[in-house]
Fold 5-oxoprolinase.
Amino acid sequence: MSKENLLFNFSIDRGGTFTDIYVEILDKESNQVNKSYVYKLLSEDKEYGDGPKEGIRRILEKELETEIPLNSKIPGKQINSLRMGTTVATNALLERKGAKTALLVTKGFRDLLYIGNQTRPDIFDLSMAREKSIFEEVVEIDERIRIINPQEIENGINYAEKTIFQNDLKEYLEIIKSVNKQKVMEQLNELKEKGIEALSIVLMHSPSFSDHEKQIYKYAKDLGFKQISLSHEVMPMIKIVPRGFTTTLDAYLNPVIHSYLTAFTTGFDEDLKFQNIFFMQSDGGLAAIKEFRGSRSILSGPAGGSIGYAQTSKFLLEQQKEKKYKGIIGFDMGGTSTDVSTYDGVQFEHIFDAQIAGVQINTPHLDINTVAAGGGSKLSFYNGIFKVGPESVGALPGPVCYGHDGQLAVTDANLILGRVNPKYFPKIFGPKKNEPLFKDLAIKKFQELTDQINKADNTNLTIYEVAQGYIKVANESMCRPIRTLTQGKGSDPRNFILNIFGGAGAQHACAVAKNLGIKEIFIHEYSGVLSAFGLARADVVQDNSHPFQSYLNEGDSIKISKDLMHKLQKANTEKLKKNGFEDNDIKHFKYLSLLYEGTDTSIMVLEPEDGDFQKAFQEQHQQEFGFLQQNKRIKIESVRVRSTANKSPEIQEDSLIFENYIEEEELSVLSTESVYFENYEEKKVQEYDCKVYEMKNLQPSSKINGPAIIINETSTIVILPEWKVLITKNKNVLLQLKKEEHTKVNVDSKSEVKSNPIELSIFSNRFMSIAEQMGRVLQKTGTSTNIKERLDFSCALFGPKGNLVANAPHLPVHLGSMQECVKWQINNYKNWTEDEIILTNHPHAGGSHLPDINIITPVFHDGKPIFYVACRGHHADVGGITPGSMPPFSKNLQEEGIAAKTLVIVRDGQLLEQELIKFLTQSETSPKAPQQNQQKEQPQKTDSQPQEANQWNGRGTRTLQDNLSDLRAQIAANNQGVKLIKSLINEYSLKYVHAYMNFIQKNAENGVRHMLETLSKRNKMKEVDYVISEDYMDDGSKIRLKLTIDRTTKSAIFDFTGTGYEVLTNINCPRSVTMSAIIYCLRCLVDEEIPLNSGCLTPIDVIIPENSLLNPSENAPIEQRTQFQKPSKPAETLKAA
């Protein structure tokens, strides 16, 4: 074939270190792929500069058999397609190397993005610094638009006034303040003089009225600003905070991207066709080079891998006969982290909110969850627990086996176990970069670590057992995000196929699948470079939306929605046709963003075949959150059309069906090696003779039984003894579990469960994962801004006596007080039955302030409560003398709102809605301030008749429907926790789970005891010694702490004797929240990560005088103390001590 008849399709994944290129070589006449392969090189090099250009140059030079000098113009005539995923924008954001950007925002909102939301990355880090802002200047634009309630028009506002008009969405708007051109020009000139390169224009209500943003754009353009991002174009949605962040990110990154694209394209001659160049976006779709934007580029790298795994393994879903699998889980394990996502066989799930490097992003992107566990994750041992990550040892010095005096990492553990073999690993180490991995160094370091572990725990583990232990802990860490994406959304991971890719993923595939109950694993031939391969199969996408505020199936909402869909579809089609596509290449997917009225979590609903959006929305809501809100209207938030086009060559469909199979005995074996695996039946790590095969020598229909290892060019596939392999028609690998296994740990009822440091780490992860998944459900389904955006909630699980087992680190003030709350119920509500859920918010029943409502659900087993789950959420209003239930001048608890010690709200699985409404709205008249001598009066008992709690004659809630919605969300969160605990018990047995609950609490206790001893010695205290710290409130009330540390028992006494009496103003602090301050400070003082549970308080005795500022009487006012000063003043006193 003539070289002139060759065409090249390049798909390039440009990573931070390496660039992977997948090239297809086509015949110009037949348009058929004659040859394809993968090429890998460094992304940057002093000699050749940019990796993608150099890779293309080398491939063209080789295939066309013509010299193309280094750094010369690359001929583009025979480049048929060029697709790229890049981390250029991601790296610029992480390293804060974007353009000098200014934010232009409506007057009065200067601090909008500084405030942001209340995301708390690490609440225990006392030295945590705010991420550097991506904008350098803020300019306030004196303009304002008001969206008018249609009721005002009906009530007689003069529609003829010039400032009032309707937009195309039939909204009434009033221009309160127009843009002053002269003033804006002066402001822009000042920015120009300061060297500002990019502008982010974010005005209030611009999605409804964009003229003001467009005016400022024109002024800025006239002054020579080249990068101007308008919020109504970048993110045409309500919610100015995420819209502001996203638009500013767009302005910040676009110049970086344009600079890279310009440098890239100038490396080719004039024959390169720009319409054939596409870049991967965060949503998994390709964008033409001129439309590639910073705000949609952050996940450009990992998105290609997601497309790759979906396209290569969806045949498994299409060809299955029994339809037992619901989807595919993508598992991309690299050196420092692991990315996971899911695909249902039709479409990926897109999410519209994410926080990356301190920036909130609200453009569509694939729902990819990341955990800091990879081949380079650091291994450590602290306080009896095996730790993997989150720190990485990096590429240099790297793992110990690299020979650069590095630290032990997951790669070292795999090397010790024989799963990574120096014989088959690139010989790129040593001074001359020509030596194999240094296994002897890894063995030496592992022996030192093993000795440390055996000494600390009085065990006799071998280095192989320790290495396997760290692999198990790493595997469990990587299972956590998978459980979030499946169990957290109402799905079972056992109903999915696992698709493994990334350089290190195939070493862990079988073990991860076993942990999740997954029975089939697919590994593609190009699994090590699947991101590049995925780019070759990706669609070119136009994805646009339009805000539309209306109610589903009311008035002409459906008609307007359809009209907007048609308008968006037409615009998308025109853009795709400009990129060379025809109508028959294009598919359209139409969505409505729907949510319940009063809530804040929308669901993107694809237009169903029968057109019934309401039914489709309810089905999705029920599956993901476990409940419906039948009494609430369904609101339309926006209309979206996603249009896709593709001319990529069809992938030859893969298959598992053969007439004859090649049995293991017929295969060529590369070698037989000693590899260590865990024998699950005998519960020990043992040595196996393991056959090693080379992937290129395995033919379709080949069968292999584990244990075995397959060496691929880009990865090593480790097959555990319980698994078997089939090579598919397209020479890919399918792993299947040999037989169904009963995974429950069988424990003799008479035998004692002994603590194992490996299992200890695994259970710590599992318990915390349950609390985190509860939190996700609550945040997604709650109504109150306090829950949705301020994240003022917490979720936790407790043992049968109410002791804290795991508390997701949501809010410091809740950490210890919920334990007090659960214990109070156990001790005072004696007839608690299964399927009975309790509400409580009274400070003397372990509550904080009254808006913080606790929902507690018992977990029963064989007729007994074995665990409790609870969540606390801040409600928008619970009555009281002021809206919001946070009165600044309350004189007693009644003035602050409605209070219940024990209120049953669910019985026999049914919500007692009438009793709940009666409680929330019980009063008919406004409260009257009681006399001062009523301060000490005891409220009526509520234990025996919980539905009659708090019968005071005051005002009930002002936001009944919001309260009911938030309470349903809290119940749903608890239901999720109950389901996950029962699943854990089914997997391990109740005795085993309870044993490790106690071990983890003991581990936290040991961590605090060690901290107390270290603190005492560091401060040169005597064996038994004390310090005293005093602080004062603004009114002169004293907080006094005498902290005594006893090194002989490794314990401490927190004595608040001498603290002032409770006061008539509302700065009193309930005992439960004082306990929160103590546990929070203790956890912050422990240098290493330890489980957060009741064990932290075991070494501590606490003395708090009754009727004092920190332990007030039942009826004392506590509102402002709780909300503003309670967490801080006692905590400050503790830290000072």
Q: What stands out?
A: Residues 238 and 734 are 46 Å apart (CA to CA). The radius of gyration is 31 Å.
